[in-house]
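Final report, Chapter 2: Outcomes

The project's central promise was a pipeline that accepts a single protein chain and returns its three-dimensional structure in a standardized token representation, suitable for archiving and comparison. That pipeline is now operational. To close this chapter, we reproduce one record exactly as it appears in the project archive, with the input sequence first and the structure output second.
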Amino acid sequence: MDPATMKLLAVGLAASLGLMGPALAIGLIGYSALQGLARNPEAGGRIQTAMILVTAFAEAIGIYALIIALILAFV
């Protein structure tokens, strides 16, 4: 295979696999937060704060994967 083709394949794999984890994590975070709110509505403020914090961490990992994919694409 051509090296340019392999480079594009590496970019696609880095982006798709690197962003799949954070996407699943954010979905599970939202699901768990809604379950917690349904069971204990009084704890809404604490649950929402924790949900936003953990979602930001998961999103940061996704941004790292995107940056790696962009570096691979343009170098």
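Archive annotation: The chain is about 90% helix and 0% strand.
This record, like all others produced under the grant, will remain available to the consortium after the project formally closes.
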